[in-house]
Design brief:
By secondary structure, this protein is an alpha+beta fold. The protein has 2 domains: 2-165, Serine Threonine Protein Phosphatase 5, Tetratricopeptide repeat (Alpha Horseshoe), CATH 1.25.40; 194-395, Thrombin, subunit H (Beta Barrel), CATH 2.40.10. It has 12 helices and 14 strands. It has a 6-stranded antiparallel β-sheet with strand order 3-14-1-2-5-4. A 6-stranded antiparallel barrel has the order 7-8-9-12-11-10. Strands 6-13 form a two-stranded parallel sheet. Helix 3 (58-71) packs antiparallel against helix 4 (79-95), helix 4 runs antiparallel to helix 5 (99-112) and helix 4 packs parallel to helix 6. The radius of gyration is 22 Å and the shape is globular.
């Protein structure tokens, strides 16, 4: 196994070198000191990633890749760079034997850049490491079908062909649903309504929410009875795009520029526990506790802002009132207490800002973006949220 992985690392060593494209130490006139410091730090991370890959320092490779994803994607609008960095993280995870962790990372990579043969080849390696050979074969075949339009993809395809030739699948083996690795879609209970939150993201009436809010719905509407139509869904990132049949009075604004940092203030808004809490919406504040989710899942971030059932799909704002995520879940305190003997507090999650924007970009949604430069009050953020957030009712 180690020989196979090392050979693939020699091919993908090209990838981390590409991270330096478009990122170089700068002292250009017109840039603020903070911009120069930010760019130089991202260059340091990219160079350290190359060194970690060359020296097979897998834990460092994973850590540096996550730092780059969390802090440096604003320096390039090229999806190639994000996909290569995600592939870098997966290389480290695969070599550490953490194949199950690598699969959702690569799933995000192929969503960001569907023609990244290297992500599909690495996904095949992850499935192969788990002995899920049907899924491994499908991933390798997908890599080959893309074609070697550059040297990186060509190297990935050569690797995929070698691995594919060595895979034997027993006739009784069945594939799992590899489109949504690690994701279990909840089954709604028959005859009962589900509730969630969404928020308007374009002047055309696009509404963003969680996939699990709209899954299994026969009818979908706002709380005041206005019909909603599902346009696209992604169970892996737990996101769904809806179309409203009414003209919005306001739209949410997403954060552009430098990514949020650990400890930054966040504000969550939604319509939790309908019939029990305020029908006008509920606001809660906290901090960004981690830039990844459970078991360092890069699709999500951890927040301390309290959330309740019904908050799912609501916007997560930064201190400037700009959207940085979509509230998705709270940790099951009872189950954790059963395992650890302690009750966790204020451990909640939202879909990562990069995941959210990639989903909207893929759907062609013309959402608004602004650099977060002017902090505002929680009261102002909450007031603005009431104009963009909608309560959603699902009838299974």
């Amino acid at each position: 196994m180690q020989t196979r992985r090392t050979n693939w690392v020699l091919v993908t060593s090209l990838l981390v070198a590409f991270l330096n494209w478009g990122i170089a130490p700068s002292s250009a006139s017109g840039q603020s000191y903070a911009d120069i410091v930010h760019m130089n730090e991202c260059t340091r991370i990219a160079n350290a990633s190359t060194d970690a890959l060359n020296h097979h320092q897998w834990e460092s490779l994973v850590s540096l890749g996550r730092q780059f994803i969390g802090n440096c994607l604003d320096l390039s609008r090229d999806s190639k760079q994000e996909a290569e960095t995600l592939n870098q993280i997966a290389i480290g995870l695969d070599n550490l034997g953490k194949f199950d962790d690598a699969i959702p990372v690569l799933g995000r990579g192929v969503r960001v850049k569907p023609d990244a043969a290297y992500c599909y080849a690495e996904l095949g390696a992850a499935f192969e490491g788990q002995r899920e050979l049907v899924d491994a074969r499908k991933a390798f075949e997908q890599a080959i079908s893309i074609g070697g339009y550059d040297e990186v993809n060509a190297g990935a395809i050569r690797f995929a062909k070698r691995q594919l030739a060595n895979i034997y699948i027993a006739p009784t083996e069945e594939p799992r649903n590899s489109e949504t690795p690690g994701t279990i879609e909840p089954s709604p209970s028959a005859g009962s309504k589900k509730f969630g939150t969404g928020f308007v993201v374009s002047n055309q009436g696009h509404i963003l929410t969680n996939n699990h809010v709209v899954a299994g719905c026969r009818t979908l509407a706002t709380r005041d009875g206005k019909a909603l139509q599902v346009l696209s869904r992604n169970a892996n990132s737990d996101l769904a795009l809806l179309q409203a049949d009414f003209a919005p009075s306001a739209v949410a604004v997403f954060r552009a520029g430098p990514a949020p940092k650990l400890g930054d203030s966040v504000v969550a808004f939604g319509f939790p526990l309908p019939g029990l809490l305020s029908s006008d919406g509920n606001v809660s504040s906290g901090i960004l506790s981690a830039t990844s989710g459970l078991q360092t899942d890069v699709r999500f971030v951890q927040i301390s802002a309290p959330v309740q059932p019904g908050n799912s799909g609501g916007p997560l704002f930064d201190s400037s009132g700009h959207v940085i995520g979509v509230v998705v879940a709270k940790l099951d305190a009872v189950k954790v207490a059963q395992v650890t003997g302690d009750v966790p507090q204020n451990v909640n999650f939202a879909v990562h800002w990069a995941e959210v924007r990639a989903f909207l970009d893929d759907a062609g949604v013309p959402y608004r973006k602004e650099v977060s430069q002017h902090p505002t009050t929680t009261r102002s953020t909450a007031a603005a949220a009431t104009h963009v957030a909608v309560a959603i009712e699902c009838t299974p």
